[in-house]
Amino acid sequence: MKTLFNRRYHIQALIGRGATSAVYRALDLLNGETVALKWVDIASQTAAPDDGGDLRDSLLNLAREFRILASLRHPHIVSVYDYGIDDGSPFFTMELLEDAAPLHAARFGQRPGAQAALLIQLLEATAYLHRRGVVHRDLKPANVLVSRDGAVKVLDFGLSAAVTRTGGRVGTMGYMAPEVLSKAEATPQSDLYSIGVMAYELATGRLPFNPFDIVGILRRAPDIAPLADHPLQLVIQRLLLKQPEDRYATADEAIRAIRLVAGLPDQQDAVQRESFLQGAAFVGRDAEMAVITRAIGEATAGAARFILIGGESGVGKSRLVDEAAAQALVSGMTALRGDIGSAGGTPFEVWRPIVRRLLLSVPVDNAQASVLRYLVPDIAVLIGRSVPGGAAPSDEAEQRRLVNVIVALIQRAEFPILLILEDLHWARQSLLPLRRLLNRASEQRHLLVIATYRDDAGRDLPAMLAPMMQMKLERLDDDALAALVQSMIGSGAPMDRIGPLIRQETEGNTFFVVEVVRALAEAAGDLSQIGQQPLPARVLTGGMERILQQRIARVPAENHALTRFAAVAGRIIDRALLGEYFGAARVNDWLFQCEDAAVLVFRDEQWRFSHDQLREAVIRDIPTDQLSALHGQVAAALEAAHSGDEDYSEMLLVHWHQAGDIKNTVRYLERTAERMLDITAEYQRMQRLIERVAPLLSRNEASAAILARLKARTAWRLGDETAALKHAEEGLRAAQRAGDTLNTAELLNMLGNTYFGMGHLAEAEVHHRESLALFRSLGSQRQIAALLNNLGNIELHQGRIDQALQLYEECYAINVALENFRGIAMVYNNIGGLYQVKRDFDAARAAHQRGLDMYREIGDQRGMAASLSSLGKLCRALGDTNGSRAYFEQSLELYRQIGNQAGMNRTLANLAHVLIDQGDGDEALRMLVRLLATVNPTRSIPAATLALLGFARRFLAEGQTEPAARLASVVLAVETMTPDNYLELGEVLHGLADAGAAIPAFEGDGRAALASTAQTLVAQFSG
């Protein structure tokens, strides 16, 4: 017998064995819990071993049944946790029922009232199964267990049919209905007969017929004498009638009959009603599932497929991916799932459960384990050895290593994988491994990724994840809505009356449909009674908001404060955080109260709000002044629960901002900016965060200056030099008014960088020298080194090579002393440019390559893009156009990935010149037109002049010397010329000289002429 199933379940002991299956006690290695694992001997139930067709068919049938079992959730049905097929051995895991006894052993001899209560529980479970289209087929005391506290648990539902050949009998002698003995198909009434046998056995202590008295079971009435004076006599008699149509029509009808004779109120239990609502059928997504099913087939065959599903909150995205996961498991894939709890969640959290599961199957070395320990703190338990490390990634290099290890773990898995990534509209660094997988799609095998997002909150995701197949989930149409409602209420529901009301109230939003049916059921007392009485014009005054608030109110009043605190903290419950504020014991009680009220669910080993609509409804009910205070309390508790953990910086920023705390908002905004601008290159996300906190931080000079500096830095990283200049000037004035020397120095440096990028070298030098003086007075060595580098760039661009080299060497020495590797790499790249100006191409190549290698080592994508661009220029100067094009294309892709528009503009212009070199002037022209149409020439002088020189070269190639000469005149009139453009300018000037063409004298404003010329070229060549 196997000792390890699915690389996850370790067999500990045999619990019981039957003719076709065995049940084992097993340890779940992923979470340390003990479960029951049932293994089914599929081969013994099929034809001869050499008949592979029957075996495959039975295996497929069984897999389909497992999928149904995993979707069933009911208080009186044993929960199936996981299922699969391991080396041809089908199995599933379920909750382990300790000290539970079979039905007849547990309750024979008890008073009729207790027996009635027991049978009602059994019938409620059976009604749930029948409503889901499942006939048990083998109801007997051994499959109906009773716990110490009297709770019924039904197990082994529906399985025997999946492993039995066509025409075979299903069930256990003595409990099988007459029609099943006659080889008719089992029906819901067949299950009711089996319950009648058990009811007879409960009441009398024996079976109504000898199990092998086939004639008696088929033809004779049972002996009812032992049932004399028992209140359930007539109910049991009807359950045991020979013809299925003579028995009760449904399990619900049998329940009402028992309640009537036992004197119990005829009203559906809230827990029972909830089980029907939560088990609503999957409907209306045939087209979407066809696409997903095809992708599953392609992935299992060896391909890699990526699907991005968008839609409004409550439309059914999670239900769709649930179905996809079941389909994937049936197809032999391993489904791994992660989601993001709320806005400002911790980095990479979506990957934590995925990595934990993979660690059970994919070996890692000590270095990889050390990197992953940050993400999986209990990794030592999972891999069985001690692991050092565990700190959060502190720079780009460490973050890059983490991304690489996550991706490598997925790639090295020796089994097909379905990755489900939910709620990516809240994603931050969590997108990085996904983007890496997309960029390497051709290297992936046996992989399907399905990601979901709210399209009202993640509008930029489709563009960011453009290679993924896009799928928009719409609301349910009338037919699908009717099918969904009938799966909850029953096929006899009067949809002509109920349908228009539900359509009016919900407009086909799946979540709202379930909530409206819940409200109608509570008013009617029973799901099956909906529509039997007059319906209201509206479900409730106040609409959906009132319905949600009524559900929330089911949580005991003494814990409403805890519910509100948790809702503010996020959708996924952080037990450490709540325990810090309320105490662990109270939190544990609250979790189960919320589960009973259907406010929280436990899924994928985490407690969470059952839907974000509920969490948002909790928050909407909090008065504004209390909400601000609550955000502050959550922030303080977060700091206490996760002290020193930088991963929570953005989350803390969000909460302190909502609390109106300027000091702490500034503190965490700067921490978040350091990460997003210098490590993760999340420029657009940083821009949105700044916009969000701007009204609060604009209230005083000091915080306004810091806000303006971060606005300028972000705009500069995005290549928007106009905005960077504006924000830096505003911030400088505010910092000077506030007497903030440090921030003044930072803003002066920011202005210098911006002016330099715009080609205004004189202004750049003035601001950099002022900033350097202030930083020298403050003794800030890192900033001093950066400014020496910046001044070296200015000297180089003005042709003063010796002065530039001296400044670079000073910068290099400081960075070496500080072990500032990013600064060292930057100096190498700049010195490479210096050697190129000196035409020492070997030294230039060595310096650029050294810089590129260092940037790669630390994971600085912006630095890598700059070094690749420098190598592209070097190759072009040497006449290696193929090498030049390859470097520029790599650089352009990196700039696109990080969203640096200025870098994209310069690289695009350089790439156009390479295309001209290679004779593809038409494509170069289209590229230059697109470039000039998107930039402001007077704000992006290097890129604009480079574009004009490209047009001039094209004109020269066509023999049009006059327009080429005019363009050269405009470029020369621009007061700033940089070494970036020397090569191209020289080519144009030599071409004009060879053609004997004179360059016309230029009078006027060169920058204004640059702008008007660019506009004219775009108009002339567009289209």
Considering the chains and any ligands shown, give keywords for the structure:
about 1000 residues, alpha/beta, Phosphorylase Kinase, domain 1, Transferase(Phosphotransferase), domain 1, 46 helices
Written overview of the protein:
- The chain is an alpha/beta fold and 1023 residues long.
- Among the domains are: 4-94, Phosphorylase Kinase, domain 1 (2-Layer Sandwich), CATH 3.30.200; 101-266, Orthogonal Bundle (Transferase(Phosphotransferase), domain 1), CATH 1.10.510.10; 286-472, Rossmann fold (3-Layer(aba) Sandwich); 551-622, Winged helix-like DNA-binding domain superfamily/Winged helix DNA-binding domain (Arc Repressor Mutant, subunit A); 923-1021.
- The chain is built from 46 helices and 16 strands.
- The strands form 4 sheets. Strands 1-2-3-4-6-5 form a 6-stranded antiparallel β-sheet, covered by helices on one side. The chain has a 5-stranded parallel β-sheet with strand order 11-12-13-10-14. The protein has a 3-stranded antiparallel β-sheet with strand order 7-8-9.
- The model is unreliable at 46-51 and 160-168 (pLDDT under 50).
